[in-house]
Amino acid sequence: MPKKIPETTIDEILKRTDIVDLISSYLSLKQAGKDYVGLCPFHNEKTPSFSVSPQKQLYYCFGCGAGGNVIRFMMDINGTSFTETLEDLGKRVGVDLATVRGNNGEKSYKKLYEIMDLANSFYNSQLRTSATKEIPIEYLKNRGLSGKVAKKFQIGWAPPGWNNILSYLNKQAIPNSLIMDSGLINESRGKKFDRLRSRITFPIKNRRGQVLGFGGRVINNDKPKYLNSPETDIFHKGSTIYGIHEATMGQKIDNLIVTEGYLDVISLSQAGLTSVVATLGTAITKNQLNLLFRETEHLIFCFDGDKAGKNAGIKACNISLEMLSDNRQIEFCFLDEGDDPDQLVKKVGAKEFFNHTKKQQIYDLLINSIKDELSQGSSEPQNVRLVEKARPFIKQILGQNQKRMAIKKLASATNFDEQILYKEIVNPIKFGPSIKLGKFSNKPLTERLANLLIQYPDLTKLISVEDLGFLKKLMDSSRNIKTIVDITEIYRTKPTTASDIFNYLEESNLGKEQLFNALPLSHIDAKKELIDGLAKLKEKTAHLEISEIYKIPFERWTDEQKAVVRKFTTRKRDEPMN
């Protein structure tokens, strides 16, 4: 594993970078007092809620909770890794990260990119000049691929032999340690040899077009059919998408078709469906989904019609649910058994391609897959089982409107009342938070409420004058309640900016992680959590007060204490039975 980039280097890059200048190159900012505001690039909005503080060199969005420094902004806006982002920022301000890393005896990412570029050029040239070039060329022609599309995706050829790429890189005076770090060479019993031999090569690139690794396909019956580069310092299989550079070319597009293989991507692109990418032979990961959603808000997964394809679709469905916000659309297309995208598009063409697939929205696939799992009939007990199985998946859905649509589909499938299902799944009849919040739910109630208002200060409008008075009585006994009161009063005094929140956190000796560790809640869910939390806090306080009163003999109760007990018992009696 490479050593960390020195903290002094990171600090120097941050010192030389002005956050306002940098963010202004991505979106329009207007000065508002000592801060700058604009439309948030991370969610759809009509009223600016994105605030940038030049004094603190930080940004924060009051609409979606996105926040951080220039490094976080560049990582999120460009979909780059921490190291890639530092390299970009370093170039902007004259800090050569490769030199810094080299001076410290560390591995050079820049050198690894150069080696992969050299390897890609070598494989490309072998497809044109190798003595065995006719073998891959004939194979590609038989697959119906043109020279034009082969050039677009830079398809190459790793010829037979044990040390072709090794000898080539040695002649380029590449240090042996870096050659081994590239993943291009295997070593066994002290002998080094080419990883890819007698295989067609497919360069795997990041969105900027830099080669990270290679996929290699045999042209005979050897095993394995496909062989990918191993994990390296620049290639991480679960965070990489094949074809992302060619599909987007740096532009945001309307949708992306997500397939399973290199040749699916290349054949669909050649037919005219150019917005197409592929996972690298494994189930899709959250990191890959994040990468895809930076490019588009509409994903179309396309899977083979066999059992493996259906299982891959179900896995992709389940992992995608918690990322399904209201502005996103996820569809699934399944081909007939025996077909794959590569074959189908050659038979019917791009215009008819989707007409020969079974298309489902994500919640349809969810419900149908559970029905298949349960061998679903139409009896009421079976419908109850379907609801119980679907409940945790639907609760994961991020967008409230998407959640409603999934519940509508579930109601149709079970003949249950839609409103009752919604209440049971989204807002069950029980006291307290209605959704699973992971580690957040394990925090003390008052800490949860304080965190909610730090990230969503506009929710202070839900705190009535009576609520504020109640909280003020408790603030001396709890630092979190004091934070709730302070944030409420700050927000009501004047329009609040990021600087106000930053200053308050600093003055109160509170960590900024409360601001930048995004809550697992949408704005709507945060609103409900606040309302429920305040009610629960009042309930707990009332119970404590009643408990203290009951310790006193009845004949010594004051009129005020009698009124408290009367109010509490009357309210409990009038509450509906659940």
CATH class of the largest domain: Alpha Beta
CATH topology annotation of the largest domain: Dna Topoisomerase Vi A Subunit, Chain: A, domain 2
Report the sheet with the most strands, covering strand number, pairing sense and barrel closure. 5 strands, antiparallel
Rg over C-alpha atoms, rounded to the nearest angstrom? 29 Å
Unreliable spans:
429-440, 571-578
* Number of domain modules: 4
Count of DSSP H/I helices: 26
CATH architecture of the largest domain: 3-Layer(aba) Sandwich
Give the tally of β-strands: 16
**Backbone structural class:** alpha+beta
**Inertia-based shape:** globular
How far apart the termini lie comes to 56 Å
The helicity comes to 40-55%
Compute the average pLDDT.
82
Strands side by side in the biggest sheet: 1-2-3-4-5
